[in-house]
Design a protein that fits this description.
The chain has 143 residues and is mostly helical. The protein has one domain. Helices cover 57% and strands 3% of the residues. The chain contains three helices and two strands. Strands 1-2 form a two-stranded antiparallel ribbon. Strand 1 and strand 2 form a beta hairpin. Helix 1 runs antiparallel to helix 2 and helix 1 packs parallel to helix 3. The longest helix has 33 residues.
């Protein structure tokens, strides 16, 4: 039976039937995995926003590493590369965002706290620098 209210405990099923915790060790490791995935979500969003700034020719807050796209390349090929790269980053980021949302829907308090703290941690370290001038488009509510 699935919980429909928040509960606290070490027994939780996260996303898949095979991802069940039954001991404190597996529970803590699962919370750590949720935390890391939430931080990685913010890293991907940071890269996507920086790629968008780079493509628009605006100053990027920190140095951007783009091994496949260089500012010297102009024209349709560069625009197409930026669009493809941005689309891939958006798709992966959206998928991870929705998986995080579904993990929160396990209604386990520890999973909820791990994901929210991971998102906040990732935002603080990867997205809070100079993003105010960018209009961010995201399909996820947790963006």
């Amino acid at each position: 039976m699935m919980h429909m209210t928040f509960y606290w405990g070490k027994k939780v099923t996260i996303l898949f039937d095979s991802w069940k915790t039954d001991s404190w060790t597996s529970y803590i490791l699962s919370l750590l995995a949720c935390f890391i995935i939430a931080v990685f979500y913010q890293v991907l969003e940071n890269r996507r926003i920086r790629l968008k700034l780079f493509a628009a020719g605006k100053p990027v807050p920190l140095e951007i590493e783009t091994p496949l796209i260089r500012r010297k390349i102009v024209g349709d090929k560069a625009k197409a590369g930026v669009k493809v790269g941005g689309s891939i980053l958006f798709g992966v980021s959206s998928g991870i965002g929705y998986l995080l949302m579904l993990a929160v829907m396990s209604f386990n308090g520890g999973v909820f706290v791990a994901i929210v703290v991971g998102l906040a941690f990732g935002y603080f370290f990867f997205r809070s620098d100079g993003e105010d001038s960018v209009v961010v488009d995201s399909s996820c509510a947790c963006a």
